[in-house]
Amino acid sequence: MTIQSIRLFGDPVLRTPAEPVKDFDKELRRLVKDLTDTMMDAPGAGLAAPQIGVGLRVFTYYVDDTLGHLVNPTLDLSEEQDEEGEEGCLSFPGLSFPTPRAIRAVAKGFDMHGEPVTIEGTDLLARCVQHETDHLDGVLFIDRMDPAQRKLAMRAIREAEWSGLAAPAVRFSPHATHGKAL
């Protein structure tokens, strides 16, 4: 088991778009294992490579008892209306906020061996795939919020114990995504 440190909000790697994977080799398989071990230990519903400081387009997920990963994903979102739901993130420990996401998503990419993979999902899986693909693009879930909600979220982030600012924490429900952060 190789548990990696998860980068927290404020780390520039979280705002840097990740590079496509070019080599489907032993190093990529090790990265997928590290991501999986770290995600499961956290525990989380998903984890993107930039969250452990690796600037490659790879993420893992564990939703509805299904464990998987996707390399070099492309995302196709449904035309259906967005749905707002509680969302958390391992890079924002202990915090969750209402965040709009497409109800249905299809992500296409590859597995760690270079074989094509398609993930189709609704509800939590759709939310997870969108959240993790955003990480690979340098986008954070707080960027998806309306301005008023984002302002409240930024206040809670500044007041969180892990933010480095000495202020009492405002606690939001950790029940986002059924107790798991994305």
UniProtKB/TrEMBL annotation:
Q: Which Gene3D superfamilies does the protein's record reference?
A: Peptide deformylase (3.90.45.10)
Q: Name one GO molecular function term.
A: peptide deformylase activity
- What Enzyme Commission number(s) does the record list for this chain? 3.5.1.88
Family annotation (InterPro entries):
Peptide_deformylase, Peptide_deformylase_sf
Record keywords: Hydrolase, Iron, Metal-binding, Protein biosynthesis
What residue ranges carry the coiled-coil annotation?
A: none
Q: Which residues form the active site?
A: E132
Sorted alphabetically, the Gene Ontology BP terms of this entry are: translation
Q: Which cofactor does it need?
A: Fe(2+)
Its UniProt entry gives the catalysed reaction(s) as: N-terminal N-formyl-L-methionyl-[peptide] + H2O = N-terminal L-methionyl-[peptide] + formate
Cofactor, free-text remark: Binds 1 Fe(2+) ion.
Q: Which amino acids does the record list as binding Fe cation?
A: C89, H131, H135
Top-level division of the source organism's lineage: Bacteria
- PANTHER family on file: PEPTIDE DEFORMYLASE, PEPTIDE DEFORMYLASE, MITOCHONDRIAL
Name the job this protein performs: Removes the formyl group from the N-terminal Met of newly synthesized proteins. Requires at least a dipeptide for an efficient rate of reaction. N-terminal L-methionine is a prerequisite for activity but the enzyme has broad specificity at other positions.
Family classification: Belongs to the polypeptide deformylase family.
Report the protein name in the record.
Answer: Peptide deformylase
Organism expressing this protein natively? Sphaerisporangium rufum
Which gene holds the coding sequence for this protein? def_1
